[in-house]
Amino acid sequence: MIKIAITGASGLIGSRIIELLYDKLTFIPISIEQMDITNKTQVNGVVSAIDFDFFLHLAGYTNVDGAEVNKKLAWRINVDGTYNVFTAVQKQKKKFIYISTDFVFDGKIPPFTENNIPNPLSYYAKTKYEGEKIVNGHSMIIRLSYPYRKDYPLKLDFVRSIKSMLAKNKPLSMVQNATMTPTFIDDIVYGIEYLVNHYTPEIFHLVGSDSLSPFQAAQFIASTFQLNKNLIKPISFSKYSINKALRPQYSTIVSNKNSFYPMKSFKEGLALL
Fold this sequence. Notes:
Elements: E1 3-7, H1 14-21, E2 26-30, H2 40-49, E3 54-57, H3 64-69, H4 71-91, E4 95-101, H5 123-135, E5 140-144, E6 147-148, H6 158-167, E7 172-175, E8 183-184, H7 185-197, E9 203-205, H8 214-224, E10 232-235, H9 237-240, H10 266-270
Parallel strand pairs: 1-2, 1-3, 3-4, 4-5, 5-9, 6-8, 7-10
């Protein structure tokens, strides 16, 4: 079996990759306790000591608002860390897959395909794009958008966050004049499985098949789980954005390369939760 070293293996996406593909691929999870990606010497030591075919780099600093305050830490993890891991993998002459985000786009003229040139707005997005530039042309880059999944107690995704708030009868303000592209994590996993088996050092978008406003998304969630829609109130993008890191307003992201795995619509994904 193909052997995949993976950072971020216990996270929202990494844990699901291992759960669904454990019998098809051999995984070598590398925890933060084993390897601090900001420590170049340690990274070289760990990477040179393991036997793997692919390195799937999921670990990263993902707090969008936090990155505006903790800029040095976000840069160390997302840029320096990516450089350290990528160069160590290159020395071993192995294949590298870098997980990125739709936030690298500015959300001004959607839809955004693999051919669009990024223009990051937030510091988090800037660090992810800098990571892309380090590996581009020599590795596979996979961009994701608003991933959600069933049952993961360690971290709430946006679907389970909204569901939890509504279940507690808490009011929600959701943006009406913006778009997002929610992506069912199981689809991401099977898309990655295909890309591992058909590896090319290109950029791919693994994203849901439709986009909608956060307000519409919350309405869908309320309907699916029979929760109170009246708790959901519309808010403008400009009002929502006060005192927050800049985010792409119209984050309609699509793929012109994914002819290999059919990605679900948001409604289809919710039905499986």
